[in-house]
Amino acid sequence: MTFAPALHSEWIKIRTLRSLCGALLAVFAATTAFSALAGVSDTSDPGFDPLFMALSGIVPGQIAAVSFGATAVASEFHGGALRLTLAATPHRGRWFAAKATAIAVPALVVGLATTLAALVVARAGLGEAANGLTVGEQVRGVVGGGVYLMLMALLAAGLAALLRSGTATLSLLIPFTLVVSFVIGDATGTVADFLPDKAGQVVLYETHDGPLGPWTGLAVTALWTALALLAGGWSLRRRDA
User: Does this model's pTM top 0.90?
Assistant: First the structure.
């Protein structure tokens, strides 16, 4: 089977599994809800960043994006599904590339729609506090936030292929993004700037002090994601279905 039919097959799986559609819906719902709450928060803090405040819902919303990527791959390891998949697409690298593409495209589309909606609802609450944001900064935040959510979904997909378990992947990534990364960030300073979540989130700030800029931060996250996908692809080639 060539790449196009393999991609079509993987897309059918994505759109017919309720858990995956639910995860994408959760990305949108959680992000916009938390951003709306942030929009009515106190803006008197000297360190207040209106762009990050408006897009801060991405931080909890990324959990759903991670769940989407991990579940999409981990579902192949249940009930012998991977054996059937590889019978149709024996070239494992081609199949994994199709799977990653089928994850990336809807994750990016939903991510862009989510960050745009989050910005709109949060700005309504922030009012004059957000008037200083330029069009360029808002576009960068929306596009960068959408790309960040896609990269986190693909990072989870790569780890799920490596670990062959959605539960193990989520048990690793969710505590890391919610607890470990935050604690390490406070403890070690600039080292934490190169963690996959911290680096990518720089794009959500209007201004940010640190060694990485908005797009270089996303590039670091993309590097982590590429390494995870390569490790997942290596595992698929080396281990039995």
Answer: yes
